[in-house]
Each structure stands twice: as C-alpha cells, then as structure tokens.
Amino acid sequence: MSSQRLGISEIGVSYPDDTFGDESMSGLPFIFVERYILQYSDTIDDALSFIADVKRTCHLILGVADGNLGTARMIQYSHSKVNFFDDQNLQPLADWHPRIPNAIYSGMDWLCPSRQFKLYTAITEQYGQITPESSIKNITAYVKT
C-alpha cells in the first residue's frame, strides 16, 4: 500500500479466454507498472489511466484499491487489451463467479471455476465483517490463495 492509500495486487493468468488478447515481450514489465502506481499515483483514477496508457506485456489480473475513496477495480490486463471491472460488471460472469455487491474478487486464475467459487463462498459468508485478520484466517487460508 502506498502513502496515498492505494493498494495493488496481481495474479498471473495461465488459463485466459479469448477476451484477453495477446502477450508481448515489448513493454513495461508489470512489476514496474505496480511500482509506478504505488510511487506516483495519487488516486485510483491516476492508476487506471496509467494502466490504460502503458505498453503492457503479459496476461494478468490486477486489483487496484483506493483506501481514501473506499473503492476498487479489477483489471483484465494483456499486451493488446485492458478491461476495467467493478462490482457491477465483474467478469467472467458465470455461475462459478457470481457478482457480489461492493466487492471485486478473483481466485488464482481467470478460468478457475473451483477456486473462484470457493472464494465467492468464503467472501459471502464473511460479508460485512471482513477485517485483515478475518481475511487471513477465514478467506485466504480456506481458499488456499
């Protein structure tokens, strides 16, 4: 988390679908994208603009959260495409990855039904009561992420 209360997380994608686009070795490695966001972005909008404009490389799922605004976005990230999701348009939309009001989530990969649904179940069971401690104990330990 940055001093501006921005946080970022990343999941590598091994099982993309056709919505991802291609990958390339030409671009800014994602670790430097993450560092730039934490070092230079003041708001979630700054971070999302940087992600939209930067020369991206590989298939990733990013989570960017703004603690000042209490909001977050999930990003489908590749060399040729970038898509931004919130709780209203979260993807992939499937019976194993339903939407949760005021939450974004992704478990282990893009197309990973068992982990996605297990994470959904853990989040909804703790919904409205999630703290850093309960997340570690009752969500990530349970889902094994």
Plain-language structure description:
This protein starts with 5 loop residues before the first strand and ends with a helix. It has a four-stranded antiparallel beta sheet, with helices on one face. It contains four helices and four strands, in the order βααβββαα. The protein has 145 residues and is an alpha+beta fold. The mean pLDDT is 95.
The 3D shape can be described as globular
Structurally, the number of domains stands at 2
Q: Give the terminus-to-terminus CA distance.
A: 19 Å
Query: What integer value in Å does the Rg equal?
Result: 15 Å
Low-confidence stretches: none
Report the mean per-residue pLDDT as an integer: 95
The secondary-structure element order is EHHEEEHH
In total, how many beta strands?
A: 4
The strand line-up of the biggest sheet is: 1-2-3-4
Total helical segments: 4
Taking the sheet with the most strands, its summary is: 4 strands, antiparallel
What proportion strand?
15-25%
**Structural class given helices, strands, pairing?**
alpha+beta
Helix content: 25-40%
SSE order and pairing:
Blueprint: E1 6-12, H1 30-40, H2 44-53, E2 60-66, E3 71-77, E4 82-85, H3 113-126, H4 132-143
Antiparallel strand pairs: 1-2, 2-3, 3-4
Helix pairs in contact: 3-4
